Amino acid sequence: MSEERFVDFESRLAFQEHRIQQLEEELAEARKQLYELDNLCRMLARKVSSMPAAAPSLLDDGGEKPPHY
After folding, report:
1. Is the dihedral angle over the CA atoms 33, 35, 38, 44 positive or is it negative?
2. Distance between CA 42 and CA 30 in Å, rounded?
3. Where are the domains of the chain?
4. DSSP per-residue string spanning 32-44
5. pLDDT for residue 55
6. What CA–CA distance (Å, rounded) separates 63 from 43?
7. Rounded to whole angstroms, what are the CA distances from 44 to 20, 40, 41?
8. Which of 10, 30, 42, 49 is the most exposed place for a label (fewest CB within 10 A)?
9. Residues near 41 by Cβ (< 8 Å), separated by ≥ 6?
10. pLDDT tens for the 69 residues of the chain, in order
């Protein structure tokens, strides 16, 4: 193997190692964000489920249009 090819392989290997490190860091950040979003969704689901159900009379307007019509 020539010296030039060896240097080329070393260069490619160094580039790949650097890129793998970058991808590992990005993956760690994505996992952190996913964990935070999962916790937020769970918290919101608990809040929604603990809210009292709206009374049907509050949702039924009797077919009347609001005064501005």
Report:
1. negative
2. 18
3. 3-50
4. HHHHHHHHHHHHH
5. 53
6. 36
7. 36, 6, 5
8. 49
9. none
10. 699 999 999 999 999 999 999 999 999 999 999 999 999 999 999 998 888 776 555 556 666 777 776
